[in-house]
Design brief:
Rossmann fold
């Protein structure tokens, strides 16, 4: 459940189709993971820690502002891999508490306020690297 005025009406399945279509054009392999449970997100990232030279495109939602556990997992992942942070809304133009970002300093790039297009921009960025 999301605020349509902040995040638009694109469904998760529509987003996955959009991303997969662009990834196919760019010859980028994608794997999707979504959870509202912080520990599941941490476990997923920790399962990727032994990867080398891979990328995570992550939208941690409200956990951006609160989760040291996700930050810690991402920081270890970033030792051998890269991260793009995406936020559909512009978190810098929203409530004061959303201005605290616990992960931006360990991300290679942050894309905020570009709607679902931000995910496409993330793929294009990865493709350019």
């Amino acid at each position: 459940m999301r605020e349509i005025t902040q995040y638009g009406s694109t469904s998760y399945d529509e987003l996955k189709n959009l991303v997969n279509s662009e990834a196919k054009k760019l010859k980028i392999k994608t794997v999707f993971f979504q959870s509202n449970i912080e520990g599941e997100i941490v476990n997923y990232i920790q399962n990727l820690i032994n990867d080398k030279n891979s990328w995570i495109v992550i939208n941690p939602g409200a956990y951006t502002h609160t989760s040291i556990a996700i930050r810690d997992a991402l920081q270890i992942y970033a030792q051998n891999n890269k991260i793009v942070e995406v936020h559909i809304s512009d978190i810098n133009q929203r409530e004061q508490f959303r201005k605290t970002n616990l992960i931006s300093d360990i991300c290679n790039k942050s894309i905020v306020g570009r709607g679902v297009q931000g995910y496409i921009e993330a793929l294009e960025y990865i493709n350019e690297q």
